[in-house]
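Repro:
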Amino acid sequence: EALAAHGIGSRAERRTMVMDALTRTGFPDPQLRSRHRSYELSGGLRQRALIATAIVASPKLLIADEPTTALDVNVQAMVVRLLDQLKQMGMGLLFVSHDLAVVSSIADKIIVMNKGRVEESGSAADVLTNPSSDYTRMLLAAMPSQAAKGTRLSPGEARPIVRPGGISHTALPGDKAQPVLAAEGLTKSFIFPDGRRVEVVSDVSFALQKGKILGLVGG
C-alpha cells in the first residue's frame, strides 16, 4: 500500500520490494508471513511489519517513535543496525525514544526533553559524556550496566512498589510451596497455511508458587 500510494513500481516490482523490506527487518519466512493478517502475528512481528512499511519506499526522512520498544534485545540490535545503514545511505532519521542506551548507539545529535521542554541539546558525545543538565545526568545514571548492578538507579528515597489493586510486592499468605501453576513436558505447535507444522514450545516444565514471579525470557 505504501508503494502503491506513491506510484512506485509495478505490482510485481512492489512484491519484490516488500519481500526485501521484510527480510531487512528480520521477518522469519517473509514469503509466508506476508500473507498473514495482523492478528496472526506477534507484537514484535507487527512492529517489524510497520518498520518495513516505513522504509520500503526509501524515504528521505524517517520519523521513528519508539521503534524498538516491543522487540527483544537481539532483534532490537538488528533494527538499530538497519536504521544506521539507512542513515549511512543518506536518509535523515528522527529517533524518538525513552531508551537512552538505544539512542546513544545511533544518534549523531541528541535533544533531551523534560515535561515538553528542551533540557539540553548537542552532539551525542557531548551530551553523553559531559551533560550540562541535572535531568540528563539522572537519565545517564539510570542506564543499567554491570557497574550499577544491585544499586539504586535513580535518586530519592525508595518507595514500596504497589501493584494494581493495591497489593504490595510481598509474599501472599498461605503455603508458599503450593504451586498456583505447574507444567510438565509442555509442547505446543501450529500448522501453517502451507501445511508445515512449526513447534513453538518444546518439552517445557516449570512451577510457579504463591507470592513468586516467574520470568520467561528468550526468543
